[in-house]
Structures are given as structure tokens and as C-alpha cells.
């Protein structure tokens, strides 16, 4: 089931499974987050230092308002080529994605894998009761399945 609010589409669990493998068991909870007024310079420094490819953007109240990724930052880098600017003072709010797909922590990891395939995205913010509680990346899903291959469902 997909619910929508404020431009965010939320994937909810379809139906209870007898022995589910859930997003909550494989999502990252110690997230690097950004603010809309952070600069692209700041984002690039953090992405490089933390060896990540993007992260959620939160407003002052902690609500999810977007996602900023390496691809979004690349748009500013390319723009800098034409203006010969050594820094990227543009703000996250100018480049972040705001058409978001999110997922519930109670969704099956198999359903999450299908969402990654269908949408061709690399990360899904995990929301519970409208609040960010984690993030599931495509890499999290890939890492989970070899550990589970000997499990009987």
C-alpha cells in the first residue's frame, strides 16, 4: 500500500508475513543528515569523508524534506565548470530531490528490493509515524541476502 503526504509517497507493508525479513532489521539508523541551507561544498566534504553517496535533508523540526546525493551535487560541479568557480556555494535546497519515496520499517526486505528495481533509486528513507527512523540503501539489501540464504522461510 502506498500513502502520500506532502509530496512524499510512503510504502506500507502489504500483509503480515509468518516469519518476515523486515526493513527494520537491515536499515541504517546512525544517519548523516543535511539541512536545506548547507552548501554543496559542505555536502561534498561530508560525503567524501564518510564514504557515502547521499543522505536525507531535514528541516529545523527534524522532518524529512528531501534527499541530497552525489548526482545532485554533480549538477553544481558541472555548473562551476562554466563559471570557473573553485567553490560550490549553492545551497542544498537548490539541488535536493523533493519528490521522495519512503518506506515503513515493517515492509518486507523483498518488497523493498522490488521498489529499488522499479524506481531505480539507491536509498529509501524509513519513516515511522511520519518521523525519520532510518534509511535503507540498495547496498543494505544486497548485503542482507547472502546472510539469509541459509534461512528457511
What is the string of SSEs from the N terminus onward? EEEHEEHHEHEEH
Mean model confidence by pLDDT: 86
Radius of gyration: 17 Å
Based on DSSP secondary structure assignment, what is the total number of beta strands? 8
Structure characterization notes:
With about 150 residues, this protein is α/β, with parallel strands linked by helices. It has one domain (about 1-150): CBS-domain. It is built from five helices and eight strands. The protein has helices at about 40-50, 70-85, 90-95, 110-120, 140-150; strands spanning about 1-5, 10, 35, 55-60, 65-70, 100-105, 125-130, 130-135. The strands form three sheets. A three-stranded mixed β-sheet has the order 1-2-6, with no helix packed on it. It has a three-stranded mixed β-sheet with strand order 3-4-5. Strands 7-8 form a two-stranded antiparallel ribbon. It is elongated and about 60 Å long. It starts with a strand and ends in a 5-residue tail after the last helix. The mean pLDDT is about 85.
Short structural description:
This protein has 153 residues and is an alpha/beta fold.
Question: Could you list some keywords that capture this structure?
Answer:
CBS-domain, 3-stranded mixed beta sheet, alpha/beta, 33% helix, 5 helices, 153 residues, elongated, 8 strands
Question: Which SSEs are present, and which pair or pack?
Answer:
Layout: E1 2-5, E2 8-11, E3 34-35, H1 40-50, E4 54-58, E5 64-69, H2 70-83, H3 92-95, E6 100-103, H4 109-119, E7 123-128, E8 131-137, H5 138-148
Parallel strand pairs: 2-6, 3-4
Antiparallel strand pairs: 1-2, 4-5, 7-8
